[in-house]
Amino acid sequence: MHLKYTILTQKGFLARPLQRMNQFSLLNNFSSVPSKYREELDSFGTISVPDEKYWGAQTQRSLLNFEIGGVEERMPPPLIHALGIIKLAAARINHKHRKLSTEISSAIESAAKEVIDGKLDDHFPLVVWQTGSGTQTNMNVNEVMVLGSP
């Protein structure tokens, strides 16, 4: 990981909204053509992500790797909301056992509630056709909670 590209947000999360790009190959999952992009960095390098979306490099790569299905085959919102419940519970129990600070726990809880309430549903583009473990969906939820946190 190249830390020179990483910034710390006010909530204490790591984020990487850096360089803007003008070109990008779009997938059938987008309902409109984004006009701005940011560069996201992961262990594979940089990748362009639509600026208005809260997902990051892992989700974008999954969209490219599993270019199948469409909007009607996205992960069901109740499943995404359930992952929010799990992350909320994990934050609370880790805070209770002093594994997370109050500040970090509160930020995770706030973001998890947004996921649970469906306020961020437009930021979960992945389809059900992916690897069997759901790793990409879990990463998508993590990225959205970080980049979309209030």
From TrEMBL:
GO terms for biological process: fumarate metabolic process; malate metabolic process; tricarboxylic acid cycle. It holds the Pfam family Lyase_1. Coiled coil: none annotated. InterPro entries: Fum_hydII (IPR005677), Fumarase/histidase_N (IPR024083), Fumarate_lyase_N (IPR022761), L-Aspartase-like (IPR008948). GO terms for molecular function: fumarate hydratase activity. Residues 45-145 form the Fumarate lyase N-terminal domain. PANTHER family: ASPARTATEAMMONIA/ARGININOSUCCINATE/ADENYLOSUCCINATE LYASE (PTHR11444), FUMARATE HYDRATASE, MITOCHONDRIAL (PTHR11444:SF1). This is Putative class II fumarate hydratase. It comes from Mitosporidium daphniae.
